[in-house]
Design brief:
The protein is mainly beta and 115 residues long. It has one helix and six strands; from the N terminus they run H-E-E-E-E-E-E.
């Protein structure tokens, strides 16, 4: 029998504070992206690992790490399109996001890959 993953195992690894800003589609009147979610001082795990990938357009993209946040940070947003994360006074762009699920369908954590 498969059990639900215990979030306490991940909680002890959340040792950084980060600010997360998620964007929605479209631009404001000033030409800036519209913000759909703004989280401040969120506990997270930041893993720095450089990785170079080729995106669908054939461009080389350098990923510098990923941020892991406990639970679903954006339950009202179906697909996370982009945004930015600030950790230790460094600003990173979100390349892609994933939300692994528990066997019962609830979301265990949110992973944001950064570039």
């Amino acid at each position: 029998m498969i059990k639900k993953l215990n979030p306490r195992h991940l909680e002890r690894l959340l040792n950084n504070k980060c600010d997360v800003k998620l964007y929605q589609e479209g631009l404001s009147e000033e030409g800036e992206p519209l913000t759909s979610l703004n989280l401040e001082n969120e506990k997270c795990r930041f893993v720095e690992k450089t990785k170079i990938i080729i995106n669908a357009d054939g461009k080389k993209v350098e990923l510098v790490g990923k941020v892991i946040l406990l639970g679903d940070i954006a339950p009202n947003i179906k697909k996370i399109n982009g945004g930015e994360v600030i950790i230790n006074d460094s600003k990173y762009e979100i390349y892609q996001a994933s939300r692994p699920r528990n066997p019962d369908g609830s979301i265990h954590h949110t992973t944001l890959e950064l570039m």
